[in-house]
C-alpha cells in the first residue's frame, strides 16, 4: 500500500491512516459515503465532497494531491485519459447558457480571488518571481507586443471578460478596441470599468456572440481571443478560425490563447475528472490537442507564425488563485453558499495540479492570413521583437 497522507475518520468513531503524518482528513458520516471511493476516481471523490457526502480537512492543494494519489491506484497509466464526448451542438443558445453558468456567478465572487485586475486567464511570469498582478499586466503586454499593436489600430477581443485587455490596449498602446462577451455581468462591469478609465470614446464593450459580428462593420487590424476557444467545441474550431479570418484585415495578426489537452487524440480529462468539470464548472467545454488546434487554424485560412507553451505559467497562476480562494474562504462561503464554495475550491486547486502534472496545457498561437504574398505577414524575420522593449508612442512604459 503506498504512503498517502490521508486519514479516514469513519462514522463509528474509528480512524485509519493511509500513510505517515496525514495532511488530509476525510470524515465520512455513513457507510454510503464509501461509494465515492470505489473506484476512487477524481470524479467520484470530487462529487462526494461537493454533494456533502463527506467533509475534508486540510489545504486545498494537499487535498487534491491526496485525491490524485488515490485515483492513480485505480486507473492504469495507459488509461488515464477518458474520452470527452461532444456535449452539445454549440449553437448560440447553448453557448450562452454555458457562459452564464460559469461566468455569471458574481463579479464580487471573482474579485475575491482574481484580485482587482479581474483577469481570468493565464498570467505571464517573465522571471518566475513576479506577483500575480505584475504577471497579469505582463501577460496583457506580451499579447499586445506579439500582435505588434500600433496607435490607432482597431483591435477585436473575442471573449473580453471584464475588459482588462481592451482597456490596456487603449490606455497604454493607443488602440481603438472592441470587446465582446456573452456574460451580462461581465458586460456590465467591463463597460463601467471603461467609463471609469475615461476610455468610452476609444473602447466599446458589446454583449454579443462573435459569430454575429457583421463583417460590414469593418475588419480589424488585430484580433485577440484569450481563454475563449475552449467553449467553441472541437467540431466547430474550423468555423471559429474561419470567422476570425473573415474579420481580419489582410496584413493583420491574430493571437489565440487557450487551454489544450495533452492527449494527442484531443480526448480528455485525466484520472476521470471530466464528468465533475462538465457537471459543475464548464458545461460544453472541449479541449483540442495543440496539433488539432493548429490543423483547424490552417483549415480556417490562418497561418501559425509563433507557438508558445505557457503551461508552467498557468500552474503558477492557478496556485495564486487557489491560495487567494483559501484566504477568502469564509467570505466566499457566505457569498455563494456551501456547494458553490466547494465546487470552486476543489476546481481551482485541481486545475493547478493538472497543469503542474502536464495533464492539460496552454498555448499562445500568433497567426496571420495564409498565402504567399509578403504583405499578409507583417512580422519581422526575427522573433527578437517579442522580447525587446519597444520605444516610442503607443507602447507601455
Give an overview of the whole structure:
- The strands form three sheets. The protein has a seven-stranded mixed β-sheet, with helices on both faces. A four-stranded mixed β-sheet has the order 2-1-3-4, with helices on one face. It has a two-stranded antiparallel sheet with strand order 5-11.
- Helices cover 39% and strands 19% of the residues.
- The longest helix has 19 residues, at 338-356.
- Helix 2 (60-74) packs across helix 13, helix 5 (132-146) crosses helix 6 and helix 11 packs antiparallel against helix 13 (338-356).
- The protein folds into two domains: 6-80, no CATH class; 92-386, 3-Layer(aba) Sandwich (Rossmann fold), CATH 3.40.50.
- With 397 residues, the chain is of the alpha/beta class.
Summarize the structure.
With 397 residues, the chain is of the alpha/beta class.
Count of alpha/pi helices? 13
Instruction: Give the number of DSSP strands.
Output: 13
- Shape call: elongated
**Which spans have pLDDT < 50 for at least 5 consecutive residues?**
75-87
CATH architectural category of the largest domain? 3-Layer(aba) Sandwich
Helices and strands in order:
Blueprint: E1 6-9, E2 15-17, E3 24-28, H1 42-50, E4 54-57, H2 60-74, E5 81-82, H3 92-103, H4 107-114, H5 132-146, E6 154-158, H6 164-173, E7 176-181, H7 184-196, E8 203-207, E9 220-226, H8 237-247, E10 248-261, E11 269-270, H9 274-281, H10 290-299, E12 302-309, H11 311-327, H12 329-336, H13 338-356, E13 360-369
Parallel strand pairs: 1-3, 6-7, 6-9, 7-8, 9-10
Antiparallel strand pairs: 1-2, 3-4, 5-11, 10-13, 12-13
Amino acid at each position: 500500500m503506498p504512503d498517502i497522507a490521508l486519514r479516514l475518520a469513519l462514522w463509528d468513531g474509528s480512524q485509519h491512516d493511509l500513510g505517515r503524518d496525514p495532511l488530509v482528513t476525510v470524515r465520512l458520516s455513513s457507510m454510503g459515503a464509501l461509494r465515492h471511493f470505489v473506484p476512487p476516481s477524481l470524479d467520484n471523490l470530487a462529487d462526494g465532497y461537493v454533494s456533502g457526502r463527506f467533509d475534508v480537512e486540510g489545504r486545498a492543494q494537499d487535498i487534491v494531491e491526496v485525491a490524485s494519489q488515490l485515483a492513480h491506484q485505480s486507473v492504469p497509466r495507459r488509461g488515464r485519459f477518458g474520452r470527452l464526448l461532444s456535449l452539445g451542438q454549440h449553437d448560440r443558445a447553448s453557448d450562452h447558457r454555458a457562459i452564464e453558468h460559469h461566468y455569471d456567478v458574481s463579479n464580487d465572487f471573482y474579485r475575491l480571488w482574481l484580485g482587482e485586475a479581474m483577469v481570468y486567464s493565464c498570467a505571464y511570469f517573465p522571471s518566475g518571481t513576479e506577483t500575480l498582478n505584475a504577471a497579469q499586466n505582463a501577460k496583457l503586454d506580451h499579447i499586445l507586443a506579439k500582435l505588434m499593436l500600433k496607435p490607432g489600430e482597431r483591435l477585436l477581443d473575442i471573449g473580453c471578460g471584464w475588459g482588462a485587455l481592451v482597456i490596456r490596449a487603449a490606455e497604454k498602446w493607443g488602440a481603438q478596441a472592441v470587446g465582446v462577451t456573452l456574460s451580462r455581468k461581465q458586460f456590465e462591469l467591463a463597460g463601467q470599468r471603461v467609463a471609469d478609465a475615461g476610455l468610452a470614446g476609444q473602447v466599446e464593450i458589446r454583449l454579443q456572440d462573435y459569430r454575429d459580428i457583421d463583417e460590414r462593420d469593418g475588419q480589424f487590424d488585430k484580433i485577440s481571443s484569450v481563454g475563449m476557444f475552449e467553449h467553441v467545441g472541437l467540431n466547430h474550431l474550423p468555423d471559429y478560425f474561419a470567422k476570425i479570418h473573415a474579420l481580419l484585415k489582410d496584413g493583420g495578426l491574430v493571437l489565440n490563447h487557450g487551454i489544450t489537452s495533452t492527449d494527442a487524440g484531443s480526448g480528455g480529462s485525466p484520472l476521470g475528472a471530466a464528468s465533475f468539470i462538465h457537471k459543475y464548472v464548464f458545461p460544453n467545454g472541449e479541449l483540442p490537442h495543440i496539433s488539432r488546434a493548429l490543423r483547424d487554424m490552417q483549415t480556417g485560412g490562418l497561418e501559425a507564425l509563433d507557438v508558445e507553451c505557457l503551461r508552467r505559467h498557468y500552474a503558477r497562476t492557478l496556485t495564486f488563485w487557489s491560495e487567494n480562494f483559501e484566504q477568502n474562504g469564509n467570505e466566499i462561503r457566505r457569498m455563494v453558499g456551501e456547494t458553490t464554495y466547494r465546487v470552486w475550491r476543489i476546481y481551482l486547486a485541481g486545475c493547478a495540479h493538472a497543469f503542474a502534472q502536464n495533464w492539460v496545457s496552454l498555448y499562445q498561437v500568433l497567426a496571420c492570413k495564409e498565402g504567399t504574398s509578403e504583405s499578409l505577414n507583417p512580422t519581422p524575420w526575427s522573433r527578437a521583437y517579442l522580447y525587446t522593449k519597444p520605444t516610442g508612442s503607443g507602447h507601455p512604459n
